[in-house]
């Protein structure tokens, strides 16, 4: 209600009471409290859709490569699968700038390919990521929010061989014909949370065992220990998603040992293949996964471990896997 006070000259001044002002402020605050989360949710939904679309673009690039080569792209000489997909992702200038004759396993390769390796490619970054790699020897390299599926299990003889993407040095290259579980049942790539070396964040850091064994005494025990970070400490010089350009764990490949949003663990003194390099995202309760047939699906972090294992292998004998 507007109140009028009489001035000395006979006219009136209009005004509000203190209670009315407070009520108005409270109503505005209530509306803001209701609207801001809705706006934030809408923005996150848009970011989440874009993250999924990035994976679909990667899937189309894999299909394009496979249709020409009759094989899936593979990492080799330290070069990631991303590097092989650049032309299909409309990044031909970046591809042309790469010297594939110099292996990325040593400083000469990094020096010669520094411009391309340090390129930040927005389609390799999920906009939901609040933070990325920072500090350490990989701070200036082009990061990635996506990684390729290397498989599942602990292989004491070298890299995993049962996923669609590993290393040509250790096994033959694959095509659709090798995927006996079906391309719609096998994950090709997934989101993961980028991190910084030495991070203590369970979802971003890389942790190392301090139990005194280099190879886990049992596969299930290693996963149980990692899930709760029992006996693990942050590793100071390792991170996830540090380089889309480089092949291997920490750079552009992950495994299916633990479900999405689980910690990432290595065993002290062991090769990275005795480990859990986990998928994950900033989205609530799960992450997007790209399947070999090109479709994407949001996989909840509550997915049973055995189901996630089945989705990580190409020929484990599992078919008709349900995620709901």
TrEMBL record:
The chain crosses the membrane at residues 12-36. Residues 40-305 form the DUF1559 domain. Gene3D superfamilies: Glycoprotein, Type 4 Pilin. Coiled coil: none annotated. Keywords: Membrane, Transmembrane, Transmembrane helix. It comes from the Bacteria. This is DUF1559 domain-containing protein. It comes from Tautonia sociabilis. The lineage of its organism: Bacteria, Pseudomonadati, Planctomycetota, Planctomycetia, Isosphaerales.
